[in-house]
Amino acid sequence: MANVLNDEKKQQVLALGRLGWSLRRIQQATGVRRETASIYLKAAGIAVRPAGAWGQRSALPVSAQVTPESGAALPVTGDLTPETGNSDPGLEGVTDSTAAKPANEVITDFGAGKPAWEGIPDAEKPKPADEVITHSERFPAVPEVLANAEGPATLRPENESTPRPTRCPTASACEPYRELIELGLGQGRNAMAIWQDLVVDSGFTSGYQSVRRFVRKFQGSQAPEARAIILTSPGEEGQVDYGTGPMVRDPASSKYRRTRLFVFTLGYSRKSVRFLVSRSSSRIWAELHEKAFRRLGGATRVVVLDNLKEGVLVPDIYDPALNPLYRDVLAHYGALALPCRIQDPDRKGKVESGVGHAQKTPLKGLRFESLEEGQRYLDRWESHWADTRIHGTTKRQVAAMFAEEKPALLPLPLEPFRYYQYGQRTVHLDGCVEVEAAYYGAPPGWIGRVLNVQWDDLWVRLLDPQTGQLLREHLRQQRGRYRIQPEDYPKRIPLGTSQLLARARRAGTQIGVLCQEIHQRQGELGVRRILGVLALAKKFGLAALEDACAAALDLGVYEYRFVRRYLERRPQAPLTLQQVDPLIRELVQYRDLIQQRWQEQERQASLFEALPEEGPPS
Fold first, then answer.
1. Last residue in a domain, options 488, 506, 525
2. Parallel, antiparallel, or unpaired for β 74-75 and 470-475?
3. Helix (H) or strand (E) holding 440
4. pTM of the predicted model, to two decimals?
5. Do 523 and 434 fall into the same domain?
6. Are residues 332 and 463 in the same domain?
């Protein structure tokens, strides 16, 4: 054996061989040489299909020849094809024209005493098949070749006691699995996927080609469904799509590259606008719509499109998420986007036909040296041939119908759409988002959350991702700079030097003068000392701090430490009683109040004395 494979590779080769793969295909899939794979397959008793002989030769060795001899062993010769003049008694009287054709499927369900094909005309004999079947089982790759004493070596089935097949020998092997195949086709699965499911789930032993033929026959027997007719009024609907364009030389690499064909077709008149582009993006897709509207002289109210990423971010038949740039461009022209159902191109069959018309007629087999050259050729064909043709469905000239539809189109706006870029940004800890290396403030409460951002050469707009509401709009700022609105500044922010000196002057005259001297002499280092001087007012009071600053100015010591020590070592003033204060009333008022109360008490006492005394009852 040339190569020894490990168990995993060996099992992989054997599994692919059981599925009916050719040696060349096994080599491409596993990397094992065909010679090595053939040795392992033959040793395991698995049929090896010769390369390039699908449906033409059996998987059996070429040393076996089968004759339809009733009740006798099958002689083996060097060729499967019977030759004229053969001395084999089983073929006596059989000429070239009447001899049986070399069969690719040999049925070994032999009769009791008559030849296999006796009395059966040639026209009714079964057609050749692609595999060797013995009852319901296949022959092994190396058949059992026995030596017979009365004749040459014979080929016999592996088990002669095997029961009769459950299906007609000429019927398809897929017939017992018809319901499963119909179910798979109803789900939109192709023949390969159905075959793989049958092999894994149902133990299907036939090859892929058997399923493929059955699927073709089944699909051919089904009547096609009628398609709905979509009628639109003038100016109501336009359909748009991309197609494959011609080869155009790339100026950067000097190589021919495939372009994309943009087609916008009006639903009523079938008037089309076609553009060639070398690449596509969200902005290019939107700009092509704008160019189509301006070339047509108006916009339609509805635009039917496919679910490509340039127009639809999340496909959904009920609530699709449109590309925001594409949505705003259509809104600028008064149009609405209507995406089709996924895998339903019949909804926009008019533009599909327009794409195919341009691909097959003017652009077929052509190459252009530049994109401009290809666009000029396409525009010339559009005006000379496409617009003047009689449409196959409407039976009218396209240009004449467009003349009727053009007045019904929506009028174009005065100015074109201002294109912008868009994206999502996370609000940083400083309350800003970064857009092209500049920073723009967001409203309070958005730190750590994601915002939708739109920006162009002049403005930056921050939008709520849920509602689309405009939160902030900033002018563009230079790289590395900040743009924050005053109401968005945080509450705790360090004061500037000018703000600090102004606060010192408001605290007191001497305090302001001392802080100004500290800043002039110490510069940036004096800012913290000024903060220390202002902090002393909380502990000792403004009056004491004013006296301490005056003393520092008199001595010419402009230091925070002197002011602090002066206040700490200065004895506190003794408490004294003030004689005059707004809270202290005059003694005359207390005298008058006491005299008034005394007179009221005397009056009440005289009233009680004047009352008559009550005697005892008689």
1. 488
2. unpaired
3. strand 438-441
4. 0.50
5. no
6. no
